[in-house]
Amino acid sequence: MKILSLMRRQRFLLNCAPINTDQSGDRSMRSAMARTDGSVEFINQQKFDRAVAGVVRLIPIPAESAEWLSEKNLVPATIWTWKRMVRNPAVLAISIAVAVIAGVFVFNFVSHLSDFPGSATARKLLSVAASTRPVMLDPVNAEAGTLSDLFFMKHGLEHYDVPPEFAEFGTIGCRVFEDDESRRIAQIWVAEKRMQFFLFPAERDSKTGAVLRFRSWRYVHQEGWTGAVTEQSGICFMAAIRGRDKDLEPYVAKPKE
Amino acid sequence: MSAGAGKVREVFRGPSGVPDRKQNLPQLYRFCFLMLGDSRKALEVFHATLREVAQRAARGELPSEPFWLFRDARWRCLEATKSDLQPESFELDEHEITPQSASQIERLDPTQLAIWISAAPDPQRSALALFYLDEFDYREILDLAELNLSELSRFLVQGRRQLQAWLDAKFPQLRDV
User: Fold this and answer.
1) Alpha-carbon distance B3 to A243, whole Å?
2) Which of B105, B126, B162 is the best substitution to test chain A (most A C-beta atoms within 10 A)?
3) What is the CATH number of domain B101-174?
4) Which of A107, A127, A146, A202 has the most C-beta neighbours closer than 10 Å?
5) Is the pTM of this model over 0.80?
6) How many CB atoms sit inside 10 A of residue A102's CB?
């Protein structure tokens, strides 16, 4: 049964045998053609097919089609031009993705350029400043510079000193609270432009415990608030205001770095 | 049409300028002619196919499948003859191929052959046109004409015998030379 089927397939293949015997690239076709062993029937078929194909080759190409088929002024094929490559959806998608990733990297890099030890805490405290209401503080009517004694006497906070630049501002209230890392923070609200001051422990080296110092005033920004931060004796002071750097610049002694 | 023609030439030739066998344009015209048996209709289908190619190329939407140009032209030919008179389904005479067949065929005019092939019912017409173009191997013809091997074999055998009968009727003096 299998032999019969094979013979039938070979017969089918021979009926479709290529006109040009050089084109018999298929192994099964080559095998079928080899088995004919020069049969008269197959030779006649081949002659017949070659003669018909010869007539087909004589079909003239009309002059009207000459322009489509002309060899002259052939445009050199430029398969991949820049313009075409840029329009490719895959290239476009990858370019956009790379641009977004690069943008995020640049944004992170630029935003961390102004980082300093304690800047993360300072930003958190700017959020606290934004949400603080006057009733949350104990009313105190004094000069800000005098509250150092209060913080030391009442709360045992050493070196919680307001810098001279802000020491003369009249206060509305103050409080001492602990942040989420149990650090004790002193908060002072002053009448001047409704600024708020924060005093908090400076960041320390995790191995040595030494205070990570930084020079002069540094600026941080969060939710429309700006803070000018300085460090002295292991305690950071931050003057926070709703606004921009230029609103704080007149108060700080030295220009920002 | 100049821009379209340039675009099509650009599409179907590699950097070497050698025509792509799979999309050989003169053979495409001959295929249309064999399918339709009328040079005017063949030219219309040929130009319509190439205009479509030029538009697709301009949009960068050329299909990557091989022989799509011939596939497209085949459907256009079938569409063009849909409203024409269809060949009646009756048994044509069939004669055995003889050694004298070649000399009979050589006396044929290409237009006569094209008219004879175009009068065959499809898919036999497509099978004969594609086979005698001598452009594709049998597997490619199976794919293009959407046939299986036994069908293609049957259409070709039948086609040869019917053509032989027609040749015998047309050139009886050469029959028994």
Assistant:
1) 62
2) B105
3) 1.10.10
4) A202
5) no
6) 10
Residue with tokens 């476009």: A92
Check CB contact under 8 Å for B113 and A56.
yes
Residue for token pair 């053609």: A33
A48: chain B residues, CB-CB within 8 Å: 97, 101-102, 105, 160, 164
- The domain ranges of chain B are 2-80, 101-174
Classify residue A227 by burial, with Cβ atoms within 10 Å: 0-12, 13-18, 19+.
buried
3-state secondary structure of A245: helix
Instruction: List Cβ neighbours of A213 (8 Å cut-off, separation of 6 or more).
Output: A117, A202, A231
pLDDT at A73: 39
List, for residues B122-142, the tens digit of each pLDDT value: 889 999 999 999 888 888 899
Per-residue model confidence (pLDDT) at position A253:
65
pLDDT above 60: residue A76: no
Residue B13 has pLDDT above 90, yes or no: no
